[in-house]
Specification:
Layout lengths: L1 H21 L8 H20 L5 H10 L4 H25 L12 H23 L10 H20 L5 H9 L8 H22 L5
Length: 208
């Protein structure tokens, strides 16, 4: 139960940081950095308890990699989604329930951006937080947080820089993305996670 609570807390603060940084009045061009830093600190805070997934796509990838029990998949994802939903409503309340009009996006470009950004994030996580050769390192949280920041800077203008199905639910609730576009995030994020896990296993066949 402690693991699931940590996943709830971590995802809550990740999505809350996104809402506070992006919903008007937000931080503008500094939003990706704030979000990356927020993820970094909550990864350090919860990594020793739950693995600090805070992302259903990461949970699936870590499971495929063999470092997450099958019985933990549904509770992890449920905790992450609940944390995102709760944070979204808190952010909207603190922002005086701003009603925003989501920007239009090129579906093909957004899908590719989400696929690449999520692959980068999950690939980094698997290598810095689950590989035997990097076990016990102190840089894993920084690497993960800065990957999100870098990918958000790179792809934020194309897809919104979500890279996380739980965040996709949150940004939809906060009117930062259209409900009709949520499939882009879900398919691209989970698809990229699977590809990243298979890539990791191919490159590290001895790391079981």
């Amino acid at each position: 139960m402690k693991k699931y609570l940590v996943e709830f807390i971590g995802t809550f603060f990740l999505v809350l940081a996104i809402g506070m940084a992006v919903v008007i009045p937000g931080l503008g061009n500094f939003a990706p950095l704030a979000i990356g830093l927020a993820l970094m600190v909550i990864v350090y805070a919860g990594g020793h308890i739950s693995g600090a997934h805070y992302n259903p796509a990461v949970t699936i990838a870590v499971w495929l990699r063999g470092r997450c029990a099958t019985s933990d998949i549904a509770p992890y994802i449920a905790a992450q989604l609940l944390g995102s939903i709760a944070a979204s409503h808190v952010a909207l309340y603190l922002k005086d329930n701003q009603v925003l009009t989501p920007s239009e996006m090129n579906v093909t470009h957004a899908f590719i951006a989400e696929l690449l950004g999520t692959f980068a994030l999950v690939y980094v996580i698997l290598n810095v937080a689950t590989a035997k050769s990097t076990a016990g390192n102190s840089f894993y949280g920084l690497a993960i947080g800065m990957t999100v920041a870098a990918m958000a800077f790179a792809f934020g203008g194309i897809s919104g820089g979500v890279f996380n199905p739980a965040v996709a639910v949150g940004v939809t609730i906060m009117h930062l993305a259209k409900l009709s576009n949520i499939w882009i995030y879900l398919v691209a994020n989970f698809g990229a996670a699977i590809i990243a896990a298979l890539t990791f296993k191919f490159l590290n066949p001895e790391d079981k």
